[in-house]
Amino acid sequence: MDDWRKQIADLILQYFGVRGVTRSRLELFLRQIEPWIASNAGDEVPITMRQIIANLQTMTILLRRRKHDGEPVYVLREGRLAGDLTTERVRNKSPRELFPDEVNAVTMPMVARAFAGEDVEFTYTLEGRTFLTFLHPFRYDAQGTVETVLGSMVDVTSERHYATVLEHNERFLRALIENLPCGLLYEETTADGTITQLLANPEFTRLTGYTVDMYREITPEEWSERIHVDDRDSVQQQYRAWLFSRATIPLHLQYRFYDRYGIVRWLDNYCARIFYEDGRDGVLQVVLDITERATAEQRLRHAASYLEQSIEPIIECDESFQITFVNRAAQSAFPTLKLGTLLSDHELGRDMPSLCPIMASDQQITLVHVGSHAYHRLLARTERGWRLFCHDVTSHIEAEQTLRHTLERERALKLLRAQFVSTLSHEFRTPLAGILISAQLLDRYGEVMTKEQHKDVIATIVARVRDLEHIVHSFTRRSSLLTRTEVQHSPVELSPLIRRIADQLEIAQRKRARVYIAGDDRRVLTDVELLSTTVEALLDNAIRYSHDESTITVEISVADHCVSVSIHDEGIGIPEEELERLFTPYFRSSRTGNIPGSGLSLATLKPLVEAAGGSLELRNQSTGGVCSTLVLPCTIDDMHVQLTSTLDEQATINSSD
Predict the structure, then answer these.
(1) What distance in Å separates the CA atoms of residue 140 and residue 506, rounded to the nearest whole number?
(2) What DSSP state is assigned to residue 85?
(3) Structural domains present in the chain
(4) What 8-state DSSP symbol labels residue 342?
(5) How many angstroms from the chain centroid is the CA of residue 325?
(6) For residue 411, what is the enclosing H or E element?
(7) What is the pLDDT of residues 207-247, one digit of tens each?
(8) pTM (2 decimals)?
């Protein structure tokens, strides 16, 4: 038995010691211990063997079929992973009796396949851990039927986690390389100069015009000919010296380059070395197109002799950043800059003490913000210190932000317009079906109906017609929002506007709902059309899904250039898991029952609100019902401020009415 212990320990070290768990190693381990278990002719495994297996980081099982019902039962279950369910506790018991249904749903079909003669591998999860299991037909009877199945299981939770992380990182790195805004070229060679690997990303192909296959075919001499003649000798000398020195310090080159189509580009080229133990040598090149920057620098250098006459701000300082020169444009743009003061104390040069010592070249362009303005700042080294050329790009940045916002809004509105016709058809279908059914009832059974039945059917038709009127009104408002070409912010008094909307709601009158309005009632400038349409839809929902004679509370607040309208109802509420889905077209809460509705008003209004820079949210209240909150940008008119009466005062006024 000592030989068993040594041999099994050697197997554990061999298959699981340093390389992790794989299916092949698990299978090999199982087949190695199979002869020792098979040497015991009976169903009982010797206690010494069980003790050895019990100390393993795996789990080994032996199953046989129960004679009276054929159910697989345990003969052996040992190992660190067995926990409390060792052989003594599970002998002659089926896995079905020991484990949850969700585990048996995975494992028992695999056990059946093993008893059918297959080698089976599978994984399952129990209590947050993932296990890899291998089952092998172990002993056969005279007819060739599997009598026992031998299996082994290991915990692969960490391995699966690391594999998932590795796969995620690999996808991330691939996506990063393929989408980087700089060209990448990786060339790997052996000691004799044979290229073993050559990679290039799409940006490298765009900058040079050469794909990997094209680059592979071109000779080093032909590639050197693509470098501008004025830069060629210097670039070749620096690159060869760096390459033959086997230095690990990156090489930085700047030169003009003719791409495959003859277009000249200024390139910023960074080269890094990777040395491998087997003698391979890798060179990674990062290439940036700096044509625009280099052109701008040349123009600024050309204009340096006309510093005083330049319409762009120009400032000079010494090595300690004390200002020595300010031209007229700089005096106008930065009035606080004075000769003798420190440029490093000003927003324009606050980063210079940390930036200048680490500059890779004598010039660098940076975007800096001074007050409400943005400048492209060219920092250039001079014999006596530093010179700054500043170009105001505030209007360009603002125009870019405005254009991006406009494009996003147009994209959202285009999508909503495309959905408009299908949405209209969907909204009309339900009330029209109700009218048709009621009309058919009158046509077929009108003569035998009682007077009360006649009234009920006619009341149904009237109710459906009112629904159609509401839909037409709602879609007219939404259509107006979708087709308008520009947004007008108009002055409005919030409380009177919301009161008019509530008083005009037909459903509020029909269900005798009480609408209380409280909060900040300042006069503001906002998108009144979008505000009124959205508030009308939210009030309609609040009343529609509340009981008759319910109380609806509207709270208004104005702060941080936004108007917020919160509508609290006493309705049926919304399951938490359905809150976000309410903004999906055609989705309705499971609690709505037979209450008519389409599930479209919130779905069509939310994108419009967000396109206007606002938000629309729903949440359940602890006291029951739902709170709907609309937030829209606004401008406060401080000349007209009036606080509405409190809730208690309104309740008193309404009760007196």
Answers:
(1) 81
(2) -
(3) 2-157 (3.30.450.20), 180-289 (3.30.450.20), 308-392 (3.30.450.20), 396-486 (1.10.287.130), 489-657 (3.30.565.10)
(4) B
(5) 50
(6) helix 394-445
(7) 999 999 999 999 989 999 999 999 999 999 999 999 888 77
(8) 0.34
